[in-house]
UniProtKB/TrEMBL annotation:
InterPro entries named among the record's database cross-references: DNA_clamp_sf (IPR046938), DNA_polIII_beta (IPR001001), DNA_polIII_beta_N (IPR022634)
Family per record: Belongs to the beta sliding clamp family.
Cellular component, GO annotation: cytoplasm; DNA polymerase III complex
Signal peptide, first to last residue: none
Residue ranges of domain DNA polymerase III beta sliding clamp N-terminal in the record: 1-98
Protein name: Beta sliding clamp
Length: 99
């Protein structure tokens, strides 16, 4: 997966998804956000086993489609600290690179 997205769009989507994450166990998959890139859209899903939310944001560019998960709280914390208006998300091996 390799995409470019608006920081504001991504940050807003992540804020909405926080309510649907399991906060008791940060290592649980229920505390992660599922990311999936299809064509020019980034789909984000979160579920705490009782209820979930699926949302999407448009990408500014999509170089490669793909899927992955990342801890939702940590992801929001990282994105919130970035100053750039555009963010590049890229998977390399088993890692997500955020630029």
């Amino acid at each position: 997966m390799k995409i470019s997205v608006s920081k504001n769009d991504l940050e807003n989507a992540l804020r909405y998804l926080q309510a649907f994450l399991d906060k008791k166990d940060a290592s649980s998959i229920a505390s992660h956000i599922h990311l999936e890139v299809i064509k020019e859209k980034l789909f984000l899903k979160a579920s705490d086993s009782d209820i979930g939310l699926k949302s999407y944001i448009s990408t500014q560019s999509t170089d490669k489609e793909g899927v992955g998960t990342i801890n939702g709280k940590k992801f929001l914390d990282i994105i919130s600290c970035l100053k750039d208006s555009n963010i590049i998300l890229e998977t390399k091996d088993d890692s997500l690179v955020i630029k």
